[in-house]
Design a protein that fits this description.
The complex is a heterodimer of chains A (about 250) and B (about 475). Chain A has about 250 residues and is an alpha/beta fold. Chain A has 13 helices and 8 strands. The termini of chain A are far apart. With about 475 residues, chain B is α/β, with parallel strands linked by helices. Classes of the chains: A alpha/beta (about 250), B alpha/beta (about 475).
C-alpha cells in the first residue's frame, strides 16, 4: 500500500485517463495532465490506452478483463509512476491486477505495473506536496469520496486537504459522506431500483449542504450523482477535482 | 422464499417507507455504537488481525478440530451428532425429543436452527417450540423470519410491536412502553421455561481442547433454555470451532463490539457438561448437533473457505448501503446482507441464487468493518465468475461451488467478448470513441440499460471530443 514512503519526486509520469473520463469528462483528464505538467513533470499519455478492465472483472468475465488489462500494462513499460484521475480504476490496477494475473506469464510485469499506480490527488499531495493559489471567486463546495478511492486506495484526506488550500472555497462535509452513491458500474443498471434509492439519498445529502458544486475524484460517481442532480433539477453541479483545481488556480471560475 | 428473486423483493421493500425508515434509523444507531467501541485505529487493526488469524487457523485445522471437539465433548458427557443435511439435522432433533417424550420446547436465538427451519419441522410432528429471545419471539408471533442475524425483529418499530402484542398475547392491553412490552413477553416466556421438556440453543464458539460450548446473549433467556429444562440440545454449523480456550476472548470481543457495540454481553455461557452429581441445576442431558449443509463444499476451496470465518456479528449488514435500504427479508435464504450474498449462493447453489452476488455495488463498506477480515467483495466477484463459469483453467477450482456455470448466457458472453475486443484493439476503441462522441447523443433513452439509467438520472452526455483527441491536439507525448 505504502508506495509513498520515499517521496522521490519523479521527472516523468504516465497518465492513464480511464474510459469514463475519455468519453464523458475529457476536461478532467486534461486538467489532471496540466496540473502535473505545471509541477514540472513530463507527462506521457499513451494513445493506445482504453480501460482498466474493471467492468468485465466485476461482472465475472475474468478472461476478458485480463486481455484488456494486459493491453494496458504493455503500454506503460518504463519505471514511471502511472497516475489516474480515478480512485476506482486505480484500485482495479493497483489492488486487483495482481490477483487477475496470478499464475500467468504476465504476472511479474503486472505486479511491477501495479506497484507504480497512484490516484491523482494522492500523487499531488503525498509525492508532489503541491501548493495551490486560489484565483477564483467565493464558492461553496462539498466532496464525495468514491468507495474505491477511500477503501481500496486509502485516499480520503488528500483531496480534502487540496480543497482546504483554496482560500475562496468553503468546503462543507457531505452528510454520510462515506456511503456509496449507488453507481457501482454495472450495478446501476443491474439493480436499477436499489441504485436509484442510493443516488436519491446522495443528492438529498448534497442539497442539504447548499453547495454550488459537488466534487469527486471519480467520474463514475459524478456521472451518477450529476445525472440525478440534473434530473431532479437541483442547483448543485458535479465536477471532477482535477478540473476544479485547475480552474480555481487559473482564474476560470 | 428461498428462491425468491432478490430484485423483485428488493423493489417491494424500497416502496415501503416505514420499513426503510426503521432500517435506516436502526443501522445508523448500530454503526455509531460500533464506531464508539473501536476509537483507536491501531487497537482495532491489532484485534481484528488476531481474530482473523484465529478463525483462519481454526479453519485450516477444521477436520482435526472437529474430531477433537467430539472426543472432548463425549468425554465430558455431551452427546455429539453429525448432520450432513438440514433434513438429517431435523431428524436428529425429532429423534432425541421423541426419546424423551418432549412436547414443549423453548429455544434461544440460533441462526443455524433458522437455516434448518427447525420450528416448522418440529411443529409438523406436534411439538410446540417457543422462541425465547425477545426479537425472535416477536417475529414468531407474526409468523415471520428474522430480518437481521443479531436483531431479528429490527424491521419493526415500537408501534408495530405494540400492535402485534395487543393482538396476539392474551389479555394484553395496547401499550408503547418498551418496559411494559418486554414485561408482557417475560410473563409468557417464564411459564414456558418452567414447563419446557427441552431447551434448544445455538453456539457462538465451540472450544475443541476443553469441549466447551460458548453462548453470548443479553436477555438471560439463553441461559434459561440451557439450564432449566432437563434436556438441552445445542446446534451449530461445523465451522464454529476454535482449538483453544484462550482463542475465545478475542473472538467474543470482536463479536459483541461489532454486533451491538457492547464490550461484553450481559451473559456469557460456557457449557462443558451436563449437571454433575453434586450440582443443583443444569440439564441432565446435553446433545450437540453439528450441521454441515454445504459447508464442506465451501471448505474445499481455499478462497471460498474464507466465507466460513464468519462469527455472525452482523456488522456487514449494519454498514451495507443495500441492506440498509431493502432490509433483511428481501434476501433469499436466512442470512441477509453481504454475508448472505456470499454464503447463500454457496449453500443453495449458484443456479438458484446466482443473481445474489450482483446485488452489491462492491463499495467495500462490509470489508472495512468485518472483524475477521473476510474479503467479501472479492468473494462476490469470485461467485459472479463461478456463476458464468468464466476464468482461466489454472484458476478453476477442483470442486466448484454448487450450480457453477449455470448462469452462463450466450448473449452476455458475446457482449463481453465484443467488449474485450473493442477495448483491447486501440484502433477499434478510438473509432468507437469517435463515433460515440459524435453520435452517442442520438441514442434514445428508451434502449435497455439507458432506460434503467434514466429512471432517476438525465441521459449521460458524451463529450464532443475524447481525451485521446484532446491529448493529441495539445501534443501530450505518446511515449
Amino acid at each position: 500500500m505504502d508506495n509513498t514512503a520515499g517521496k522521490v519526486r519523479p521527472h516523468t509520469v504516465y497518465f492513464f485517463g480511464t474510459c469514463v473520463v475519455d468519453l464523458f469528462f475529457p476536461g478532467a483528464g486534461m486538467a489532471g495532465i496540466n496540473l502535473l505538467k505545471e509541477q514540472g513533470l513530463k507527462v506521457i499519455f499513451p494513445q493506445g490506452q482504453s480501460c482498466c478492465g474493471q467492468p468485465a472483472f466485476n461482472s465475472g468475465y475474468m478472461d476478458e478483463a485480463r486481455s484488456v488489462a494486459w493491453a494496458q500494462v504493455k503500454l506503460f513499460p518504463k519505471d514511471y509512476p502511472v497516475i489516474l484521475p480515478s480512485g476506482s480504476c486505480a484500485g482495479m490496477m493497483k489492488k486487483h491486477y495482481p490477483s487477475l494475473f496470478r499464475g500467468t506469464p504476465q504476472q511479474a510485469k503486472a505486479e511491477d505495473f501495479s506497484g507504480r499506480v497512484y490516484e491523482l490527488t494522492q500523487f499531488l499531495v503525498d509525492i508532489l506536496d503541491i501548493k495551490l493559489k486560489d484565483l477564483g471567486t467565493p464558492t461553496k463546495v462539498t466532496w464525495h469520496p468514491s468507495c474505491h478511492s477511500q477503501r481500496e486506495m486509502g485516499v480520503l484526506d488528500q483531496p480534502k486537504s487540496l480543497l482546504r488550500q483554496l482560500a475562496n472555497v468553503e468546503y462543507v462535509e457531505l452528510p454520510r459522506e462515506r456511503e456509496c452513491c449507488g453507481f457501482g458500474g454495472t450495478f446501476a443498471v443491474r439493480q436499477p431500483e436499489i441504485s436509484a434509492a442510493m443516488v436519491t439519498d446522495k443528492i438529498d445529502a448534497v442539497a442539504s449542504t447548499k453547495a454550488d458544486t459537488v466534487i469527486s475524484g471519480d467520474c463514475g460517481c459524478l456521472l451518477n450523482i450529476g445525472g440525478a442532480l440534473e434530473k431532479a433539477q437541483q442547483a448543485a453541479r458535479p465536477k471532477h477535482i482535477a478540473e476544479f483545481l485547475w480552474e480555481r488556480t487559473h482564474g476560470h471560475s | 422464499m428461498d428462491t425468491a428473486d432478490f430484485q423483485d423483493s428488493a423493489r417491494t421493500a424500497l416502496g415501503d417507507p416505514q420499513l426503510r425508515s426503521n432500517f435506516r434509523r436502526a443501522m445508523d444507531g448500530l454503526m455509531a455504537k460500533r464506531a464508539a467501541m473501536f476509537p483507536d485505529r491501531d487497537e482495532w487493526t491489532r484485534l481484528r488481525s488476531l481474530g482473523a488469524a484465529v478463525r483462519a487457523r481454526s479453519l485450516l485445522n477444521l477436520p482435526h478440530l472437529l474430531e477433537k471437539l467430539e472426543e472432548r465433548l463425549t468425554a465430558n458427557g455431551i452427546h455429539v451428532h453429525w448432520a450432513e443435511t438440514v433434513d438429517q439435522g431435523n431428524a436428529i432433533f425429532k429423534e432425541i425429543l421423541a426419546q424423551h417424550d418432549a412436547k414443549h420446547v423453548v429455544k434461544g436465538k440460533s441462526m443455524v436452527s433458522e437455516e434448518m427451519h427447525l420450528n416448522h419441522a418440529l411443529e409438523e410432528v406436534g411439538i410446540e417450540i417457543i422462541e425465547a429471545d425477545l426479537g425472535e419471539y416477536i417475529i414468531q408471533l407474526d409468523h415471520e423470519t428474522p430480518s437481521h442475524i443479531i436483531m431479528p425483529a429490527i424491521h419493526k418499530n415500537k408501534e408495530q410491536i405494540a400492535r402485534l402484542f395487543s393482538q396476539k398475547i392474551k389479555d394484553a392491553a395496547y401499550t408503547e412502553d418498551v418496559d411494559h412490552l418486554t414485561g408482557m413477553a417475560r410473563q409468557v416466556l417464564r411459564k414456558k421455561f418452567a414447563n419446557a421438556d427441552a431447551g434448544v440453543s445455538g453456539v457462538n464458539v465451540a472450544v475443541a481442547e476443553t469441549g466447551t460450548l460458548v453462548l453470548v446473549e443479553n436477555e438471560g433467556n439463553g441461559r434459561m433454555c440451557t439450564t432449566v429444562p432437563k434436556l438441552h440440545i445445542a446446534v451449530m454449523g461445523i465451522e464454529k470451532v476454535v482449538e483453544r480456550l484462550e482463542e475465545v476472548p478475542p473472538i467474543l470481543q470482536l463479536l459483541t463490539r461489532s454486533a451491538t457495540g457492547q464490550p461484553i454481553t450481559t451473559y456469557v455461557n460456557m457449557i462443558s457438561s451436563p449437571r454433575k452429581a453434586d450440582e443443583k441445576d443444569g440439564p441432565e442431558e446435553i446433545h450437540l448437533v453439528l450441521l454441515d449443509n454445504g459447508r464442506s463444499r465451501v471448505y474445499s476451496d481455499p478462497e471460498l473457505r474464507n466465507t466460513l470465518r464468519c462469527i455472525r456479528c452482523g456488522a456487514c449488514m449494519n454498514h451495507c448501503p443495500v441492506y440498509t435500504r431493502v432490509g433483511g427479508h428481501a434476501y433469499p435464504g436466512v442470512y441477509p446482507g453481504p454475508i448472505g450474498k456470499i454464503l447463500t449462493p454457496q449453500i443453495l447453489g449458484l443456479d438458484v441464487a446466482g443473481d445474489l452476488p450482483h446485488g452489491s455495488s462492491l463499495c467495500n463498506a462490509c470489508v472495512e468493518v468485518c472483524p475477521v477480515e473476510i474479503p467479501i467483495a472479492a468473494l462476490l466477484v469470485r461467485l459472479r465468475r463461478e456463476a458464468v463459469g468464466n476464468g482461466a483453467k489454472a484458476l478453476k477450482s477442483a470442486i466448484p461451488p454448487k450450480g457453477a456455470g449455470q448462469h452462463r448466457s450466450r448473449v452476455e458472453s458475446w457482449v463481453w467478448w465484443g467488449w474485450a475486443l473493442a477495448y483491447r484493439v486501440p484502433w477499434i476503441y478510438r473509432l468507437t470513441g469517435l463515433m460515440l462522441s459524435r453520435f452517442g447523443g442520438l441514442m434514445p433513452a428508451t434502449i435497455p440499460l439507458l432506460k434503467e439509467w434514466t429512471s432517476v438520472r438525465s441521459k449521460p452526455r458524451f463529450a464532443s471530443r475524447t481525451l485521446h483527441e484532446m491529448a493529441s491536439s495539445q501534443e501530450v507525448p505518446n511515449d
